[in-house]
Specification:
mainly alpha; 0% strand
Amino acid sequence: MSLASERLVIPITAKDKARVERKAAMAGRLSTAEFVRRAALNYEPADEAAAAELRGLVAGFEELHANTLAQLDRTDAALDAALAHFNRDRV
């Protein structure tokens, strides 16, 4: 393991700094610098192919959701009709 020899200075609000420090403290025996270093080095932004795949999945789920709601409306109407039919026969 090599010793850190470079500095990275980033602007941060006091509120965000306090939040990062709290998270570092909750992570255990890590300095704030080590916590931020690990978080930054482990972060991998989604690539465009993965994002496109997720957008496609969302579109598919939106269509499925719309179809499910339409089926539920039809089922609800059929149930209302059946209940009305049986209620008429009781009277």
